[in-house]
Write a structure and sequence with these properties.
The chain has about 325 residues and is α/β, with parallel strands linked by helices. Helix content is about 35%, strand content about 20%. The protein has a single domain, classed as Alpha-Beta Barrel (TIM Barrel). An eight-stranded parallel β-barrel has the order 1-2-5-6-9-10-11-14, surrounded by four helices. A two-stranded antiparallel ribbon has the order 3-4.
């Protein structure tokens, strides 16, 4: 069964930050769900040389009130699924706790890594998300981890394409699209297709994004991210701080007829952009996303309203 084929059609949403709460609650006609990164609700504790994540009660309580009105999906930031020595178990422990408190319809993570082996027995944080090479070795590392995450919480798991800023690794076995297709063929995960990330890669490395996207297994796309960013020293950066470029809207229009299992379009925006852009411009982006959703996606299923949200107790499957 394809990921997304049995999921509700959520519609259009936005990533959660507590600064966005007034905008979210006052615009339910434009925002049908929220995408939560539980990492942001935590403080990092360092004790005896070990890091752990601990939820901040106030942030968790504020979000809980909002989730009584809006369905939730989870988007991880700190799993580091591609680290050679293993993923960030502190993140997994934290998500286990969150799953006991909040229902979510799927969870996702970036295709990359942030933790690297340090000089001692511990690990260092790279400070930014690093891309994986598109190799058989990377595929073999990822497949069992992805399969585990597809089962752990009893809801689908999605992998998200990321940006990269260095030339192709000489040892790559596949292109980015070919590598993503290999992952989708060999695992049960769905795809969180970040169109802006893909657009950045196309601009920075000079390939045709429209042609490349049409080679992707678009029937595995469950969620789409749209965003805008900046150019710095000739590179298009995935800062997610601006309006969505016209070219990205064009790519969205191109692929939506080919994504039968799409359940959500998420406008991603960093919190510091709210005062810079203003609510009016943000709402204009959500309105455009709603137009695209209603044109292509709503015919495949109805939006999920808050009174349709299940009240089942959340939990996770055993390893």
């Amino acid at each position: 069964m394809l990921p997304g084929s049995q999921l509700p059609k959520l519609g259009v949403g936005i990533n959660y930050h507590w600064d966005f709460a007034p905008l979210i609650t006052s615009n339910p006609q434009l925002i049908q769900f929220i995408e939560v990164s539980p990492d942001m609700l935590c403080e990092e504790i360092l004790a005896d040389g070990r890091r752990s994540l601990r939820f901040e009660a106030r942030k968790l309580a504020d979000l809980k009130r909002l989730t009584q009105q809006f369905p939730v999906i989870v988007h991880g930031l700190g799993l580091s699924i591609g680290s050679a020595r293993g993923w960030n178990q502190d993140y997994v422990n934290m998500l286990d706790q969150y799953a006991q408190q909040q229902q979510f319809y799927w969870h996702s993570e970036h295709l990359g890594f942030t933790l690297v082996q340090g000089d001692s027995a511990g690990e260092d944080h790279a400070g930014l998300l690093l891309p994986l090479p598109f190799t058989r070795e990377a595929l073999a590392l990822l497949e069992p981890r992805i399969q585990h995450l597809c089962k752990r919480y009893g809801v689908p798991f999605l992998i998200e394409n990321t940006t990269y800023y260095l030339p192709d690794f000489s040892g790559n076995d596949w292109s980015e699209i070919e590598f993503l297709n290999q992952l989708l063929t060999n695992t049960d995960c769905g795809l969180l297709l970040d169109l802006y990330n893909f657009y950045c890669n196309a601009l920075n490395f000079g390939f045709d994004p429209a042609y490349a996207l049409m080679q992707l297994q678009l029937d595995r796309v469950v969620e789409i991210h749209i965003a805008g960013g900046i150019t710095h020293e000739g590179f298009q950066l995935d800062v997610h701080s601006d309006l969505v470029p016209d070219a990205v809207w064009g790519l969205l229009d191109l692929i939506l007829p080919h994504t039968p299992n799409l359940c959500a379009i998420t406008y991603e925006l960093l919190e510091f952009s709210l005062p810079m852009l203003g609510e009016e411009k943000i709402l204009s982006q959500l309105t455009l996303a709603q137009t695209a959703w209603k044109k292509y996606c709503a015919i495949h299923g109805t939006h999920l309203h808050t009174n349709q949200v299940s009240t089942r107790e959340p939990g996770y499957a055993s390893c």
